[in-house]
Write a structure and sequence with these properties.
The chain has about 170 residues and is mainly beta. The protein contains 1 helix and 14 strands; from the N terminus they run ββββαββββββββββ.
């Protein structure tokens, strides 16, 4: 008998203009958990490694390709999208069973420039910059969100699940 642990994430996105919902993911995007993210989890669980006590949601520019080898500092398949108010948004998750979700407190990004395109999201261990672990990231299942305008709001839900997979 063999058993394994399966760690996966799913992203949903909503695009709001004022009080009008322009787009909502019909199905979530499955994301890539990075090698750095997996190593960080193992270090914390089994080796008393340093824990990032706050995680942050960030946005990817158009058509991202997240790879297992990506880090916050080096990620050749995507660039970070930063045309929004403030820094990356705190990931405020709540655990239920084997899933941690921010569904009760979505990460909200207010766009601060016209004609912008966002293609995905990620979760990392730093509010700004390239230090901290990159846990995971992915392109949106509905494709890029083009035509974002000043004061549009993107709301990101991120669920991360760990399950036994026989």
């Amino acid at each position: 008998m063999k058993d394994s642990i399966n760690i996966k994430g799913r992203i949903w996105v909503e695009h709001w203009r004022g009080d009008r919902l322009l787009f909502s993911s019909k199905k979530p995007t499955k994301n890539k958990v990075t090698n750095e993210g997996l190593q960080h989890l193992l270090d914390i669980i089994l080796l008393s490694g340093s824990q990032d006590t706050t995680w942050f949601v960030g946005l990817c520019a158009a058509t991202p390709t997240v790879a297992a080898a990506d880090t916050l500092a080096v990620h050749g398949g995507w660039t970070e999208f930063t045309a929004y108010t403030g820094n990356r948004k705190a990931y405020t998750g709540v655990r239920s069973g084997q899933t941690v979700s921010n569904s009760a407190s979505l990460a909200e990004f207010t766009i601060n420039a016209d004609t912008q395109t966002v293609g995905g999201a990620f979760v990392g261990g730093a509010e700004t910059g390239t230090t901290g672990a990159l846990l995971c990231g992915a392109a949106f299942s509905g494709g890029n969100r083009p035509g974002l305008m000043t004061n549009d709001v993107l709301k990101i839900r991120y669920d991360i699940t760990a399950a036994s997979a026989a």
